[in-house]
Design goal:
Blueprint (H helix, E strand, L loop, with lengths): L2 E4 L6 E3 L19 H7 L5 H8 L1 E2 L20 H30 L14 E5 L4 E5 L4 E3 L6 H4 L2 E8 L7 E9 L9 H13 L4 E13 L2 E12 L2 E12 L2 E10 L3 H12 L2 E2 L2
Antiparallel strand pairs: 1-2, 1-3, 4-5, 5-13, 6-7, 7-8, 8-12, 9-10, 10-11, 11-12
Length: about 280
């Protein structure tokens, strides 16, 4: 039976998939009375005890409102179909580039030291389109993945930044602007689908699970995706954010060891620090 814990900040019901669920999947705030906090007050108690005594079950959830019908890909205009496929293809390529280097870095590192949360972080603008973010280490510019010519024409500019390979968890940023002469508008769901396919389609990925919610940065529409997966037997957790304004698309991803609680807390702090000046 599935168990949930309400977020005291936004009220979102968070599925308690494991004892490592510490942050709300909707607003990113730390969940009050999460398992780690509760276990400190109840030494010797198990995660099953926690779910049975603190959480509520799916049959106690309020009924969902009927979802708005959305057009299928089959019913969309040809130009919009091409755009969605293009966004998906571009970010699958981006994900393969970022995800593969992330796994290499995390596999070769130890769990994150708690001092990373108390040290001085670096706040900086990355790229040409006003993305500001605070990170434990300065990110370095890196060459974006190679794309076929027909996709390159859809982009005016794409810039990428990432943490060094020896860092304890991997941070990646994509800042891009699409060519208005080639496309009519950006599609947020197309970007979200493309973003999640980045990770799902990487070689060796199994046990892939994720949640997706709407998200806003600087009053701009976006999405947030949180998930876990195994790659060649190595367990990874990730957070991915995408934000759109007109023809600009920004993406921030953080990869970590699945059971690295300090890295998870750092990742949430990184995501909360994002601002876009436009």
């Amino acid at each position: 039976m599935t168990h949930y814990l309400h977020c005291n900040n936004c009220g979102h019901p968070n599925e308690m998939k494991s004892e490592y669920v510490v942050f709300c999947t909707s607003c990113g705030q730390k969940l009050e009375n999460n398992f780690t906090q509760w276990q400190r007050r109840n030494p010797g108690a198990t995660f099953e005890d926690y779910k049975n005594n603190v959480c509520f079950t799916e049959n106690q959830l309020p009924p969902k409102l009927p979802a708005k019908k959305s057009r299928s890909l089959k019913s969309r205009p040809l130009k919009e179909k091409i755009l969605i496929v293009a966004i998906t293809t571009i970010f699958v390529a981006v994900g393969y580039w970022l995800g593969s280097s992330a796994v290499t870095a995390i596999r070769n590192s130890k769990k994150t030291d708690e001092k990373v949360l108390s040290e001085q972080w670096i706040k900086k603008t990355y790229g040409s389109y006003g993305l500001n973010i605070e990170t434990p280490w300065e990110l370095k510019s890196s060459p974006p993945p190679s794309l076929p010519e027909n996709l390159k024409r859809m982009l005016e500019k794409i810039e990428s930044f990432e943490s060094k390979n020896d860092d304890q968890f991997k941070i990646g940023i994509i800042s891009s602007k699409y060519n208005p002469a080639e496309i009519s508008q950006l599609n947020l769901q197309g970007a979200a689908d493309g973003a999640i396919n980045e990770v799902r389609n990487m070689p060796g990925v199994t046990n892939f699970t994720y949640s997706e919610d709407t998200y806003s940065v600087s009053n701009l529409p976006g999405f947030i995706q949180r998930g876990t997966y195994s790659q060649n037997g190595f367990k990874i957790g990730f957070i991915n954010i995408g934000v759109i304004k007109d023809f600009n698309f920004w993406q921030v991803m953080v990869f970590r060891r699945e059971n690295d609680i300090v890295a998870q807390e750092a990742a949430e702090r990184i995501i909360r620090s994002i601002q876009i000046d436009y």
